[in-house]
Amino acid sequence: MSVTIASDVGGTFTDVVLLGGDGTVRVAKTLTTPADPTEGLLRGVAQVIGDAGAAPADVTRFVHATTLATNVILERTGVPVAFVTTEGFRSMLALGRQARVEEDRYDLAYVQPDPPVPLALTYAVPERIGADGAVLRPLDEDAADAVARRIAADGVAAVAICLLHSYRNATHEERLAEIIAARLPAGVPVVTSAAVWPEIGEYERATTTLMSAYVGPVMASYLERLGARLAALGVDAPVHVMESAGGVLPAALAASRAVYTIESGPAAGVIAAARQGARHGLADLISFDMGGTTAKAGLVRGGRPGITHEFQVGGKGSFGGRRPGTGVPIKVPAIDLAEVGSGGGSIAWADAGTLRVGPRSAGADPGPACYGRGGTLPTVTDADLVLGYLAGFGEFALDAGRARAAIAEHVAGPLGVDVVEAAAAIHDIANAQMGAAVHVVTVRRGIDPRGFTLVALGGAAPTHAVRLAAGFGIARVLIPPQAGVGSAVGLLHADLAIERARTFLAPVNELTSCSASAGGLRDLADAFDALEDAARADLSATGDAEVTRSVGVRFVGQAHAFTVDLPPGPITPGTVQRAAEEFYKRYHESYGIDLRDPAELTTARVRVVLPAGEHAPPAPPGAPAGTGGARRVWLDGAFREVPVHDRAACAGEFAGPCVVTEPQCSLLVPPGWRGTVTAEGALLVEPDAGGEA
Amino acid sequence: MTDDRLTAEILRNALCVAAEEASIVVVRSAYSAFIVEGADAAAAILDARGRLVAHSLSTALIQCASLRSALPHLLKAHPAAAMRPGDVFVLNDVYQGGIHANDLLVFRPVFVDGAPAYFTGTLIHVADLSGLSAGGMASDATDVYLEGLQLPPVRIATADGLVDDMVAVLAANSRTPGKLVGDLRALIAGANVAARRLDEIIEAHTPAGLARGVEDYLAHTEARMRAGLAALPAGTGRGAYVLDDGHRIAVEVTSDGAGGLTVDFDGTDEQVPLPVNSGFSQTHGGVMYAVRCFVDPALPMNEGCFAPVDVKVPLGSLLHCTRPYPGGGRFGAVAAAEEAVLAAVTALRRAGGVAASGILQAFSISGVHRPWLHMAFDLGGSGARRDHDGADATGALFGGGRNIVPQVEPVEARLPVRVEEVALIPDSGGRGRTRGGLGTRTVLRMLEDARVDTRGDRLLRPPPGAAGGEPGRAGGYYRLRADGTREPLGTKATRQPLAAGEALVVETSGGGGYGAPAGRDPAAARRDAADGRTA
């Protein structure tokens, strides 16, 4: 028997899913063990293997999503890194590009964030490449060697190099890396910016390179430890790690390109939603992934998740989005999503007479008050329990008494309202915060969410999803099988994939006019070929692969480009012209400006995908004993007795109001909505005809 | 009750998001050299009474104050009853809420029951709109007409599209007509997007619901603002700041102890026939910035913040210029006003002095033989605070950050200049128990013949320290000859030649130090030395 295991380590829960060769699915939800995440993970792995009656050796693929890279950057727990740049620009990282936005601007006590590398570990070497790639000043090798000796004396664990215009000409970076590596102990990574992400914009390229060096060794040792623990259990399948754009990377590549994994976990949820949508013939989806610590919303249009090439780690949130200029910019592609620091574990508190929820989370330890693990502060989960929306989370029995006590002491008392009223307000505010994430990926981008289907993933999502949808006039909510561990399910089917890109600046008319130099087109074709070769080498892909080529296009004189796909086949004046036409069209759609000014190409991108192959769709899990019965649930200002259905026993249609429970989550169907069990085992919740939604 | 509160929260967010979306649309579709590589656009939502309801996140307060100040002038020139759906207006008049020729303000009314009930507004520094120097930074403009084309509030678009005659006049008055028209389109697109969002909000919440929500939002903000200001003791504090040219800004801040504040600039020097004056809107924005520093920084910026603060600025003074006195170089005067208010409020609180900050230093470089333009600014170091060192090279007093400073590679890819250095200047922060933030040095080598305009302050009189702290190092502008000779350019130089092979050096001032330098923590001194912040 051949089985695949997928695992998603979140801030609160670690989800593990096993897919058997026959399509059977086993699920484990364990508490995340922050000190060593492999501990909680291995507990889950052992559990699903045991439940499935499989042998560890049966596991042929192990797919993993981890927030390790993000956490290392946010918590600044990476390895000591030295940074080397062009003479004259040693202050590059210290100056940064932090925008002072919102409250920072008025804060007399504003303290500049420390640069990601202390100035004392930042070096500059005499050399210079011009914007056209020409060598203006040769690399001073003696000076470079002197820097190498000082770096060796610093005892750093990695080195990042970013020289000006290396995206055009990487020879200085490569030679400098050799000189430095020669002075360092074997195995100390020396990372060059042209190898990591050769795009114009020295600061972003530098931080991307730096973060790769900073996180890489931590990721490498984590994956080594994970590999060893799996091997000790008898699992010797290759480990694949989810990357930010929705593919997976071999473990070795994930370690050397750690920045590619920053959005590892969140990306899995969007991929899962896209897959569920495809099964149901739904192409326009909003993935809504709500766990214990955060909630994320992503957009799938025409079956494809949106991809962004500019995001920030640790950026200051604004309406659930990430504001450019406030965090550490990372240039590698990532699934475009909005995240709010609000989940089931978010703590509710009274702040000068108003009720606030989050951003602090009770996490896994101590967890919400109702877990009875020492938490005494009220959380969204506690509120949901008091309102009757939840009964228990799998093996976690929930203690409603503790939930009530926590809300009474910290929210209801200080605000002078009763406990249920306070709980309802906490639930509503959490919904409003989730709404901010959905808003960012839809309304804020001029996209009307009403034609979309909301896909609920994560332990807390089904409890909130339908009301969230109602708030946006969304008339369809899909709860996939195993929704409570939906991200991990998404990993089961992820393809091996990587993207490579480089700056390619050229006016469109030079590539398309009759007098166009064939040279320009050949340069573009060569750039694509080189990128494809490099991407195939990353994945050790020799044979069939899906290759997507795209270009950045913008108006000459503007700074922001749109990414436009090119058709397969040769690069011709016609293909470039069609890309320009597509750009004009999208510019008009986005900004309402119908403009045909001269455009230019900015970037060449190649994405290589090795499809994982179709698996049998997961069969519904073995049904545990149903709870059934009825429960008092707070709806529209009063408690009402509503039916409780066990999801495993659900068939056909069910009318709201009701609650549908399963081991990892609990679906609230408010009055005016009704659910259907689809042929694929998902629950589809829609308003009654003429209903309130 | 919970439902109401929730609705209010949703509504408030929707308004802020609408403004934010407008600013993003402007940034992404503009051509101005100022905007494309970094700086932000301002966008706001106001009501027909001229009250500021919401604005985009990164908007500098002086820009936000400009949009707020200008709307009543627009309504005077074009009564609401004469406005029709689809109308869009533009202006730049410094005496009617504007800033200077190159800062275009665009407004679009949003109709409820057939009459304008709200306005959306956008503002950016556009590419070029006539005047003595390309880019609009001529420091020898002795009157407003030399600064650029003057635009009273005029209709620039209707439901039928752009008013072509107006656009033709504007284009004919720009050295870079294509970019100017592009910027205008971007501003209109931003105002249109916000208007569309507002229409959706009105549809979702009903006109009455929105009106009630706006009232509650502004009232709630005002209550919080007053509560914050009530922490200031009753009484009067005085402050002053002297500009490089010797002109003096004086202010008295009087607190009634119950949340009301009067800020009176009586005693400030008279306006001068050079672009160092400030229009009223800019001074007002500066005052609000300084006052906001003493209340909860997380307060939303809307009319509720303005309401408790009464600002009195003598007409015809340096901070409230009248026709034809120019206002384009206002940020030096506004920063001085901010510094004076910070000092006055600090005196009122009997909380020691305020170490001053280096400010932004603007410059523009334009081609001699063909039209190209680079406009940018570098930022000075912040003054040290009592408990911590000043921030290096940030947009203190202006509400921006480094993000507005372009990166080197895109500039070199676009323009005939080579950037040779962008670096913190060691020892530029004023010494003290806590150290002032550092200034920066930028060296731009010309690859073609060019001309440069500069516009800085606190270069002849560097930012003073406080409580025994030393002043920051004075910055300046310099021409670096091909042979390495360095010559000072004026702090407000105009169209100075820079031959191919010569370089412009821009050095920003460091912030003042706080407290006696002898009191500096030895560990902090060692860290500064290791980082190269001190030599």
Automatic annotation (TrEMBL), chain A:
Signal peptide: none annotated. InterPro entries: ATPase_NBD, Hydant_A_N, Hydantoinase_A, Oxoprolinase-like. It comes from the Bacteria. Residues 205-499 form the Hydantoinase A/oxoprolinase domain. Residues 5-181 form the Hydantoinase/oxoprolinase N-terminal domain. Pfam families: Hydant_A_N (PF05378), Hydantoinase_A (PF01968). Transmembrane segments: none annotated. PANTHER family: 5-OXOPROLINASE RELATED, HYPOTHETICAL 5-OXOPROLINASE (EUROFUNG)-RELATED. This is Hydantoinase/oxoprolinase family protein. It comes from Actinomadura parmotrematis.
Automatic annotation (TrEMBL), chain B:
Residues 523-535 have a biased composition (Basic and acidic residues). It comes from the Bacteria. Pfam families: Hydantoinase_B. InterPro entries: Hydantoinase_B, Oxoprolinase-like. Residues 4-517 form the Hydantoinase B/oxoprolinase domain. Residues 466-475 have a biased composition (Gly residues). Residues 456-476, 509-535 are annotated as: Disordered. This is Hydantoinase B/oxoprolinase family protein. It comes from Actinomadura parmotrematis. The lineage of its organism: Bacteria, Bacillati, Actinomycetota, Actinomycetes, Streptosporangiales.
